[in-house]
Amino acid sequence: MNYDTIEEAYHFVNGARFGERRALLHRPNGKIYYTSTVADYGELPADVETSGDYLAIPHKKDLDLGKELVSDFIQEHCPQQLNRILALFERKDAYRHFKDLLTGMGLIESWYLYEDAREREELQNWCREHNLGLD
Length: 135
What we know:
Elements: H1 3-14, E1 21-26, E2 32-36, E3 54-56, H2 67-77, H3 82-88, H4 94-105, H5 108-129
Antiparallel strand pairs: 1-2, 1-3
């Protein structure tokens, strides 16, 4: 299985709110089926619900890449701001406020690189956990 194919499907799933898009890997042939509940996009095979041959590509929420990821980043890059930033996540639009704060601190690019690396690491771990041999 090609990792880039899995990563592309992962980005499709994460390109919308949690649960709005799905990507399912058919293990025997490596084909990925895409569907969206919002855009009425894609058709799934008839046996997708009854066969054990399909594996849902995770959303980043499935990989637990939320508040813990933010906390890890802050502890590495600006630990003195930890309480202030964690408090943001108790309000509405927390992620937007977090990114605005990082922009003001000159850390937004570092955040995107950190987030991308951790997502890649966790997605590769997910692949190993599901015995997907990667190229």
